[in-house]
Amino acid sequence: MGKILICYFSTGGEDIGAGENKEVGNTAVMAGLIADKLTAESHDVTSFRIQPANPYPSSYDQKLARAMEERSMQERPEYTEDVADFDDYDTVFIGYPIWCSDLPMIVYNFLEKHVFTGKVVIPFCTHGGSGESDTFRIVREKAVGSAPGDGLAIPGNLVDKPGGKKQIDHWLEQLAV
Ligand SMILES: Cc1cc2nc3c(=O)[nH]c(=O)nc-3n(C[C@H](O)[C@H](O)[C@H](O)COP(=O)(O)O)c2cc1C
In whole angstroms, what is the distance from residue 49 CA to residue 97 CA? Predict the structure, then answer.
């Protein structure tokens, strides 16, 4: 698997149904578990968080309104800084929350800004019940020239539970990274 990059977008904030304000988002927790396991197995791992130039409100309703607007306008929200030496990585994990049964528009921006030729690209996501919502296919389409790896989607409220870690560990073992 060579040099591994784990890029992810995660906002946290008010989590619908959970009644709590999450400082660390679900996808960030998932990205951390992936990084921990791969690092423990002596892989060369770098994590990169896609940070929006215009931060999202923590209120669920406000964030949803903005996400819907961005999606209907097919916007490509900017992020603050980019990955250094993207070309050096052999394997790229790309993580995101499902927003409106889709990838967040900022993740489209990230995918469209990079050249994935020759890399293995592995998507992962958290969601509130709708599963991966066909986003793994979209990631494969956008990451032109890459070799696809099997993605993993898990419910956001499971990531910090033992069952979530178990699923992630099992998936990574199947991927044989
Ligand atoms: C704007 C917005 C739209 C969402 N749309 C969906 C959806 O269509 N389907 C779904 O299952 N969950 C949806 N969710 C729930 C998130 O996917 C879920 O809470 C996720 O784990 C949040 O990840 P994060 O904490 O890393 O940001 C949505 C959440 C937000 C904030």
Answer: 13
Q: Which residues line ligand 1 (CB under 6 A)?
A: 10-12, 15, 22, 25-28, 60, 63-64, 67, 97-101, 126-130, 156
Residues 66/55, Cβ–Cβ less than 8 Å: no
Cβ-in-10-Å burial (0-12, 13-18, 19+) of 49 comes to middle
Total structural domains within the chain: 1
Query: How does pLDDT run across 10-61, given as a tens digit for each residue?
Result: 998 776 655 567 888 999 999 999 999 999 999 999 999 999 999 999 899 9
Distance 108 CA to ligand 1 centre (A): 16
The CATH number of the domain where 11 resides is what?
3.40.50.360
Mean pLDDT for the stretch of residues 110-128: 97
**Domain boundaries, position 28:** 3-175
Helix (H) / strand (E) containing 44: strand 44-49
Residue with tokens 């990084």: 35
